[in-house]
Amino acid sequence: MEKPKIIVSGKNGQLGNELKDLSLSYPQFEFYFFDRTELDIARAADINAVFDKIKPAYFINTAAYTAVDKAEAEQEQAYIINAEATGNIAKACKTHGAKLIHISTDYVFNGKGDEPYKEDDATDPVNYYGYSKWMGEQLALQNNPQTIVIRTSWVYSIYGNNFVKTMLRLMKERTDINVVNDQFGSPTYAKDLAAAIMQIITQSATGFETGIYHFSNDGIISWYEFAEAIKAIKKLSCNIHPINTSQYPTPAKRPFYSAMSKEKIINTFHIGLKPWRQGLEECMRKL
User: Which one is catalytic: 58, 117, 129, 189?
Assistant: First the structure.
């Protein structure tokens, strides 16, 4: 019997790399990983050509325009990759009967809440990156009924650029750093997100429960607390000073509170959540 085929876009990103590592543990599937040079998701013709050739059962879209501040100036580019391309992938999935797992973000919320956002809470992005990702969710779900959207937050791993690696570098270079202490959310170790995705796929034989889900590691912290944990785990001596967002202006606004409720993904797919600090310690052992 032929193995079900899985296409993964964004293979050089944090999640794409973690899925590549994890794919070795799933020999019952045939994986195809693509980067931007091998598959330009902004070109519908390229997407269709790949679908015609591979005939995937699943498409995991981890490709995204993720430069939050740059997106304010490069709106067209952010929209093409995060929204338009996602819609084209979903259309190709529908044509070929493939299931889509699309990765989205906590930045679809405005951050004015004070308890974890649920999947059906009102979206209201405060920056263009969040808006482009929100549009991507809409197009994915509209264009392919067999779609799961997973919103995640504060992603880090041993791969790519992320907060953990930036903090480690700065703490080694400087004696003092400032980190914002009034933005709250939940870190996500990309390896744990990859494992959750594969758990969803392996269970999908008994039903692919479509719709929007939230995933991160367990617990809610500020960026300052995140930095303090990184410092403690590596036993570094840098002084970290808590500051307000107003003291650290950025081109794009950030939501002040973007923690999300994970009850739906836990109850639907029986996914266990790791505490955020456990994920961080595991990642930093590898670093």
Answer: 129
* Sign, CA torsion 204/276/191/256: positive
Rg (CA), the chain: 19
Q: Give me 79's structure tokens.
A: 């929209």
Q: Which two tokens stand for residue 240?
A: 């970290």
Express each pLDDT in 23-66 by its tens digit. Answer: 999 999 999 999 999 999 999 999 999 999 999 999 999 999 99
What is the rounded (10 degree) CA torsion for 119, 121, 122, 126?
-70
Which has the closest alpha carbon to 20: 9, 11, 29? 11
CB 102 within 8 A of CB 9: no
Catalytic annotation on 79? no
Residue type, 7: I
Report residue 225 CA to chain centroid gap: 21
Q: How many residues does the structure list for the chain?
A: 287
Q: What contacts 246, CB < 8 A, 6 or more positions away?
A: none
Residue 126 DSSP class? S
| pLDDT tens, position by position, 76-109 | 999 999 999 999 999 999 999 999 999 999 999 9
Nearest to 119, CA basis, from 264, 220, 219: 264
Half-sphere exposure of 282 (CA within 13 A, CB side): 14
At which residue do the structure tokens 């607390």 appear? Answer: 225
Prediction pTM value: 0.98
Instruction: To the nearest 10°, report the CA torsion of 272, 194, 151, 141.
Output: -110
d(CA 255, CA 252): 10
Q: Which domains does the chain have, with CATH numbers?
A: 5-161+186-219+257-274 (3.40.50.720)
